[in-house]
Amino acid sequence: MSNELESKLIDLEMRLSFQEETIDQLNDAILHQNKAIEKLTKSLGLISQRIESMDTESPEVGNQRPPHY
Fold first, then answer.
1. Could you report how far apart the first and last alpha carbons of the chain are, in Å?
2. Coil vs helix vs strand at 62
3. For 11-60, how does the pLDDT look when each residue is reduced to its tens digit (9 = 90+)?
């Protein structure tokens, strides 16, 4: 194998290695973000349920006078 061909092969192997490492890092970042999104989605759902239950269970306070009057 000529030196030029061997040099090109080594360069390609280094690039492939770098790309595989980058893909692994990106995959880890996506998995982390997916877990965070799932956690936030669950939290938002719980907050929405609490707000809906507060709206249906609490009496109308807007037009009532405070008790000290």
1. 98
2. coil
3. 999 999 999 999 999 999 999 999 999 999 999 999 999 998 887 765 66
